[in-house]
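Give me the fold.
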Amino acid sequence: MTDQQSSHAANTAIVGTYYSKRFFKEFEPQTFYYSLAPVMADMPNYQGKTINFDFFKKIPYLAGDDSDQFTAQQLYQSASVVTATLHERDGYVQLSRYLAITARNNIMERAYENIKQAAVKTLDVMIRNDIGMMVADVANASSLDFANMAIDGGTLHSTGITARVWSHDGTAANDRFSMYHDKKRIAQSALVSSFAKSGLTVRSIMHGVSVLEGKDVPPVNGTGKYILITHPTAAYNVTTAAGGLKGWISPTSSEPMRKTPSQLGIVGGAQVYTTTLAYRFPLSGDTLSTASGVLFCSLLFGQDAYGCVNISEYGSKGFKLFLKESGPQSTNDPTNKKKQAAFSITNVGKILNKSAGLWLLSTEQV
């Protein structure tokens, strides 16, 4: 997967193979919205810029007896194809030959590690935003650019009493998961100022699971459990809040002794995963009743909730790693001074069954 422009000015094949295999071994376990997606679609070459997801509907049960002992009742398997438009994102780090020679450590190795982290976050944020949430001072969701939302570390226009919550919509009402705050379903465009401060609790998670179970949504295949992706601070609230783990587990049990304060494991039928890329919206001004605060949006889902493109080493061509030198043949680099570490990602996230997922909204405990 390395890009070699000439035999004398690039990494050898064996180095490229080593880095490519190492990258995929280390890459996927660090993603969450991508690696935990219940549906993966392969991306064939030369098929345009859209990807198709096959969504098979449930076969209903039989409610009536057979008419005689030799007649079976025919059941029908129906399916629909959901299409999504692919994104392409490419990034690179450029180093000089002189720096690579004089640096006190392996600068290309460091560049590789940093570009890997950038690629991991790029992919996860891409999938997250395609199916995700937003807090903004706008009148309707159609004016929001979910795909290119740079929320991490910013307030994203979430200032004052006009701030509203939006689940992913675009222009299609069927392209969004429902939202729940303090065990109550809220409408898209609800004012954030109407929320009371309440951290994520065991009861909130259990209520979300009961909603999915009530809609006959099966757990994610192979796990027997639903999946919850949340921010470490929101998970920490579960362990420390008044409505948290206290009272739900035995005080003499060794099970609560986790590695970190935010490690929850399985709660109420949901396997909890924490990542700093989960939604954390900083809010300023009169946004949470009478004060500033933070709004967390945790994704709970079951089978067939959403899908993305498979980028594994033996899957599609949705990811490439580059380690190269430009080569003396380049007019911009006649003395072969440039080295690069780069990645290319082509992917998309798509809601397939809006009833199979939901957002649990909570605030930071004060």
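The helical segments are 13-27, 97-102, 107-130, 202-214, 232-240.
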